[in-house]
Amino acid sequence: MAALTVSARRKHMGVYVRFQDRNFDACHVASFLRTLLRHLRGHIILLWDNSRIHKGSPVRKVLAANPRLHVEWLPAYAPELNPVEQIWLNLKGQMANSILETRRHVRRQLHIRTRRVRGSQDALRSFVLASDLPSLAFCTFSDPPSG
Question: What digits encode the pLDDT tens for the residues 43-60?
């Protein structure tokens, strides 16, 4: 599970990830949202696909209890609009030819590569720019006009 964040004020980007050995469910999403709420200030706009795990009771409770969270739904079956999909493509590409012998080794390599990406504002911006989000989303990355 991942969240790509953009600070509206500083235009600084971040990435939050959670890895686990089994499928995620609504309880995991709710826990992830509570983590984001602890780490991020101000309003949080979630761009979500229509996955069932985003709509479960635990998630609805977190959303109802936290007015800082706002959900914008992406169209169904549109992974090309989701910048987080670019994170997964990046990680898969980096690990494609690796020999990973244990789950622990896989997890460690995922965390190492995630830290590397987290440290690169250019890489994080490229994930948004590589998505097919409408051009309005790109405005947040342009420099203010001079003069």
Answer: 998 988 888 999 999 999
Domains and CATH numbers, the chain: 2-141 (3.30.420.10)
Q: Which residues of 55-85 are buried (b: 16+ CB within 10 A; e: fewer)?
A: ebebbeebbeeeeebeeeebeeeeeeebbbb
The band of 146, judged by pLDDT with boundaries at 50, 70 and 90, is: very low
Residues 62 and 64: their CA atoms lie apart, in Å, by 5
- The three-class DSSP label of residue 3 is strand
For residue 70, give the DSSP letter: E
Strands 13-17 and 2-6: antiparallel
pLDDT tens, residue by residue, 20-43: 989 999 999 999 999 999 999 989
What is the phi/psi pair of residue 2, to 5°? -145, 155
Q: Are strands 44-48 and 69-73 parallel, antiparallel or unpaired?
A: parallel
Backbone angles phi, psi at 9, to 5 degrees: -80, -50
Amino acid at site 104: R
